[in-house]
Design a protein that fits this description.
Distance between the termini: 24 Å
Largest sheet: 6 strands, mixed
Number of helices: 7
Strand order of the largest sheet: 3-2-4-1-5-6
Radius of gyration: 17 Å
Mean pLDDT: 95
CATH superfamily: Phosphoglycerate mutase-like
CATH architecture: 3-Layer(aba) Sandwich
CATH class: Alpha Beta
Number of domains: 1
Structural class: alpha/beta
Helix content: 25-40%
CATH topology: Rossmann fold
Strand content: 5-15%
Low-confidence stretches: none
Length: 209
Protein backbone atom coordinates (compact mmCIF):
# COMPACT_ATOMS: atom_id res chain seq x y z
CA UNK A 1 0.00 0.00 0.00
CA UNK A 2 1.28 3.42 -0.89
CA UNK A 3 1.46 6.28 1.55
CA UNK A 4 -0.93 8.43 -0.51
CA UNK A 5 -3.91 6.11 -0.12
CA UNK A 6 -5.82 8.68 1.94
CA UNK A 7 -7.35 5.77 3.86
CA UNK A 8 -10.04 6.36 6.49
CA UNK A 9 -11.65 3.40 8.25
CA UNK A 10 -14.65 3.91 10.55
CA UNK A 11 -15.79 1.19 12.96
CA UNK A 12 -18.71 1.30 15.36
CA UNK A 13 -17.76 -0.43 18.61
CA UNK A 14 -18.84 -4.03 19.18
CA UNK A 15 -22.03 -4.78 21.08
CA UNK A 16 -21.90 -3.41 24.63
CA UNK A 17 -23.45 -4.90 27.74
CA UNK A 18 -26.12 -2.20 27.56
CA UNK A 19 -26.87 -2.78 23.86
CA UNK A 20 -27.53 -6.36 24.93
CA UNK A 21 -29.92 -5.21 27.67
CA UNK A 22 -31.72 -2.76 25.32
CA UNK A 23 -30.70 0.29 27.38
CA UNK A 24 -30.06 3.83 26.20
CA UNK A 25 -26.31 4.22 26.72
CA UNK A 26 -25.15 7.64 25.57
CA UNK A 27 -22.26 8.91 27.72
CA UNK A 28 -22.59 6.06 30.23
CA UNK A 29 -19.60 3.76 30.13
CA UNK A 30 -20.40 0.03 29.96
CA UNK A 31 -17.83 -2.29 28.40
CA UNK A 32 -18.28 -4.73 25.53
CA UNK A 33 -20.41 -7.84 25.90
CA UNK A 34 -18.78 -11.20 25.03
CA UNK A 35 -20.44 -10.88 21.60
CA UNK A 36 -19.01 -7.36 21.29
CA UNK A 37 -15.50 -8.67 21.99
CA UNK A 38 -15.97 -11.21 19.19
CA UNK A 39 -17.29 -8.50 16.85
CA UNK A 40 -14.28 -6.28 17.52
CA UNK A 41 -11.82 -9.12 16.91
CA UNK A 42 -13.66 -10.08 13.73
CA UNK A 43 -13.45 -6.47 12.52
CA UNK A 44 -9.69 -6.61 13.04
CA UNK A 45 -9.48 -9.87 11.11
CA UNK A 46 -11.50 -8.42 8.21
CA UNK A 47 -9.12 -5.48 8.02
CA UNK A 48 -6.16 -7.87 8.14
CA UNK A 49 -7.65 -9.90 5.26
CA UNK A 50 -7.60 -6.68 3.22
CA UNK A 51 -3.90 -6.17 4.11
CA UNK A 52 -4.77 -2.89 5.81
CA UNK A 53 -2.42 -1.36 8.36
CA UNK A 54 -2.64 2.03 10.03
CA UNK A 55 -0.49 4.97 11.05
CA UNK A 56 -2.76 6.55 13.64
CA UNK A 57 -6.03 5.84 15.46
CA UNK A 58 -8.78 7.97 16.96
CA UNK A 59 -11.38 6.91 19.50
CA UNK A 60 -13.77 8.36 22.04
CA UNK A 61 -13.41 8.82 25.79
CA UNK A 62 -15.65 5.77 26.38
CA UNK A 63 -14.49 2.26 27.25
CA UNK A 64 -16.50 0.33 24.66
CA UNK A 65 -14.91 2.22 21.76
CA UNK A 66 -11.39 2.09 23.26
CA UNK A 67 -11.71 -1.66 23.93
CA UNK A 68 -12.92 -2.23 20.35
CA UNK A 69 -9.90 -0.35 19.01
CA UNK A 70 -7.53 -2.29 21.26
CA UNK A 71 -8.94 -5.66 20.09
CA UNK A 72 -8.80 -4.67 16.41
CA UNK A 73 -5.21 -3.46 16.69
CA UNK A 74 -4.31 -6.71 18.46
CA UNK A 75 -5.59 -8.71 15.48
CA UNK A 76 -3.71 -6.39 13.13
CA UNK A 77 -0.45 -6.85 15.05
CA UNK A 78 -0.33 -3.11 15.81
CA UNK A 79 -0.99 -2.93 19.57
CA UNK A 80 1.26 0.11 20.05
CA UNK A 81 -0.31 2.26 17.32
CA UNK A 82 -0.45 5.96 18.31
CA UNK A 83 -4.05 6.61 19.42
CA UNK A 84 -5.93 9.78 20.29
CA UNK A 85 -8.90 9.71 22.65
CA UNK A 86 -11.37 12.58 22.74
CA UNK A 87 -14.88 13.12 24.09
CA UNK A 88 -15.67 14.91 20.82
CA UNK A 89 -16.12 11.39 19.36
CA UNK A 90 -18.37 10.19 22.19
CA UNK A 91 -21.80 8.72 21.54
CA UNK A 92 -24.73 11.12 21.47
CA UNK A 93 -25.71 12.12 25.03
CA UNK A 94 -29.18 10.71 25.68
CA UNK A 95 -29.67 12.84 28.79
CA UNK A 96 -32.53 11.58 30.97
CA UNK A 97 -32.93 8.51 28.75
CA UNK A 98 -29.41 7.25 29.59
CA UNK A 99 -29.54 3.97 31.46
CA UNK A 100 -33.24 3.42 30.79
CA UNK A 101 -34.61 0.37 29.07
CA UNK A 102 -36.00 1.45 25.69
CA UNK A 103 -39.35 -0.24 26.43
CA UNK A 104 -39.59 1.53 29.81
CA UNK A 105 -38.85 4.85 28.10
CA UNK A 106 -41.72 4.19 25.68
CA UNK A 107 -44.06 3.50 28.62
CA UNK A 108 -42.99 6.74 30.32
CA UNK A 109 -43.02 9.15 27.36
CA UNK A 110 -44.97 7.27 24.71
CA UNK A 111 -43.87 5.37 21.62
CA UNK A 112 -44.15 8.36 19.30
CA UNK A 113 -42.09 10.74 21.48
CA UNK A 114 -39.29 8.22 21.99
CA UNK A 115 -39.26 7.52 18.25
CA UNK A 116 -38.91 11.26 17.56
CA UNK A 117 -35.97 11.51 20.00
CA UNK A 118 -34.26 8.50 18.44
CA UNK A 119 -34.96 9.18 14.78
CA UNK A 120 -35.35 12.91 14.27
CA UNK A 121 -32.38 15.04 13.32
CA UNK A 122 -32.84 18.05 15.58
CA UNK A 123 -35.08 17.09 18.53
CA UNK A 124 -33.08 16.37 21.70
CA UNK A 125 -34.25 14.15 24.58
CA UNK A 126 -34.54 15.91 27.97
CA UNK A 127 -31.08 16.97 29.11
CA UNK A 128 -29.39 15.35 26.10
CA UNK A 129 -28.23 15.95 22.53
CA UNK A 130 -30.03 15.72 19.20
CA UNK A 131 -28.22 14.14 16.27
CA UNK A 132 -27.71 17.71 15.01
CA UNK A 133 -25.96 18.58 18.30
CA UNK A 134 -23.76 15.48 17.94
CA UNK A 135 -22.83 16.45 14.37
CA UNK A 136 -21.92 19.96 15.59
CA UNK A 137 -19.55 18.40 18.14
CA UNK A 138 -17.97 15.72 15.93
CA UNK A 139 -17.38 17.60 12.68
CA UNK A 140 -15.00 20.28 14.01
CA UNK A 141 -12.87 17.52 15.56
CA UNK A 142 -12.89 15.64 12.26
CA UNK A 143 -11.91 18.79 10.35
CA UNK A 144 -9.13 19.74 12.77
CA UNK A 145 -7.59 16.35 13.58
CA UNK A 146 -8.78 13.37 11.51
CA UNK A 147 -9.14 14.76 7.99
CA UNK A 148 -5.72 16.53 7.96
CA UNK A 149 -4.05 13.21 8.90
CA UNK A 150 -5.88 11.39 6.08
CA UNK A 151 -5.04 14.07 3.51
CA UNK A 152 -1.43 13.98 4.69
CA UNK A 153 -1.30 10.35 3.54
CA UNK A 154 -1.60 8.74 6.97
CA UNK A 155 -3.78 5.63 7.18
CA UNK A 156 -6.39 6.42 9.82
CA UNK A 157 -8.76 4.20 11.80
CA UNK A 158 -11.57 5.60 13.95
CA UNK A 159 -13.37 3.45 16.54
CA UNK A 160 -16.39 5.28 17.88
CA UNK A 161 -20.19 5.11 18.19
CA UNK A 162 -23.32 4.82 16.09
CA UNK A 163 -24.21 8.50 16.24
CA UNK A 164 -20.77 10.07 16.28
CA UNK A 165 -19.86 8.01 13.21
CA UNK A 166 -23.17 8.85 11.54
CA UNK A 167 -22.02 12.47 11.71
CA UNK A 168 -18.93 11.55 9.68
CA UNK A 169 -20.84 9.31 7.27
CA UNK A 170 -23.31 12.17 6.74
CA UNK A 171 -20.47 14.29 5.36
CA UNK A 172 -18.62 11.53 3.50
CA UNK A 173 -21.73 10.02 1.86
CA UNK A 174 -23.38 13.43 1.35
CA UNK A 175 -26.49 12.55 3.31
CA UNK A 176 -28.97 15.18 4.43
CA UNK A 177 -30.80 15.87 7.71
CA UNK A 178 -33.72 14.06 6.06
CA UNK A 179 -31.80 10.92 5.06
CA UNK A 180 -29.27 10.48 7.90
CA UNK A 181 -31.76 9.51 10.67
CA UNK A 182 -32.75 6.36 8.76
CA UNK A 183 -29.14 5.22 8.27
CA UNK A 184 -27.97 2.50 10.66
CA UNK A 185 -24.38 1.46 11.32
CA UNK A 186 -23.85 -2.15 12.37
CA UNK A 187 -21.62 -2.89 15.34
CA UNK A 188 -18.14 -4.10 14.47
CA UNK A 189 -18.42 -3.62 10.70
CA UNK A 190 -15.56 -1.57 9.19
CA UNK A 191 -16.36 1.11 6.61
CA UNK A 192 -13.30 1.59 4.41
CA UNK A 193 -13.10 4.96 2.68
CA UNK A 194 -10.46 6.25 0.33
CA UNK A 195 -10.57 10.00 -0.17
CA UNK A 196 -9.60 12.23 -3.04
CA UNK A 197 -7.16 15.09 -2.47
CA UNK A 198 -10.14 17.46 -2.18
CA UNK A 199 -11.46 15.34 0.77
CA UNK A 200 -14.43 13.87 -1.12
CA UNK A 201 -14.87 10.11 -1.37
CA UNK A 202 -13.08 8.17 -4.07
CA UNK A 203 -14.31 4.74 -2.92
CA UNK A 204 -16.18 3.10 -0.06
CA UNK A 205 -16.29 -0.56 0.97
CA UNK A 206 -18.32 -2.13 3.78
CA UNK A 207 -16.50 -5.14 5.28
CA UNK A 208 -19.61 -7.00 6.43
CA UNK A 209 -19.77 -10.75 7.08
Amino acid sequence: MSGNDRLLVLVRHGQSDWNLKNLFTGWKDPDLSPKGVDEARTAGLRLKEQDLTFDVAFTSALTRAQHTLELMLGELGQPMLPSHRDAALNERDYGELSGLNKDDARKKWGEEQVHIWRRSYDVAPPGGESLKDTVARVLPYYAQHILPAVLDGQRVIVAAHGNSLRALVMVLDRLTPQTIPAMELDTGVPLVYRLKANSTVESKAVLAA
